[in-house]
Amino acid sequence: MGRGGSLLHVVAECGDSHKFRDCTRLIYYREKHLLDAPNGNGDTPLHCAAAAGNAEMISFLIHLAAAGDDGNTEAEKAEKEVAYLRMHNNRGETALHHAVRAAAAAADNEDDKQLALDCIDQLMAADPQLAAIQHPNEKAASPLYLAISLGEIGIAKHLFDKTEGELSYSGPDGRNVWHAAVSFPQGKYRLCFKLSVVLLLS
């Protein structure tokens, strides 16, 4: 969860069953500011839900962010939703980065990996441009770069397919996905490099 998290961070990370969503609703309506409050790492509860692979919690948190105050227009709700999804932590990462890491960590468990991919899908459905947004500093990397740097070809292709190629290829310090691909041993390098070429030339 990270340092200095609120109760909402804890609940968002611990589960996404009906019980956890009810608890989230109760906390939110008592302390609405906790929805986008960062912990010591700059993570919001949405980051924590994505890191834990809690797709239903992600959907619920996005719903709360969009609902906001009574009387908001549909345009205002959509604007608040996108702003929430695009919040960066101290490393310049959105919840989508956490979902990519969760999918990579679950590579050997198909059920857990599918849950993490569901998180990616929930985030991308709410904001189709989430993988293409400008990063806040030169040390930050795009979700695609992160997937390639982790050697996760399937996740990278999943991102590419979901966005129809409309995503950022950038990495930290001016690097791009090609730089990430060449860092692997020969066998995996060939796969990463081949995918990187396909992505960049699409």
Automatic annotation (TrEMBL):
Gene3D superfamilies: Ankyrin repeat-containing domain
Each ANK repeat, start to end: 41-73
Keywords per UniProt: ANK repeat
One Pfam assignment: Ank_2
Organism whose genome encodes this protein: Oryza rufipogon
Protein name: Uncharacterized protein
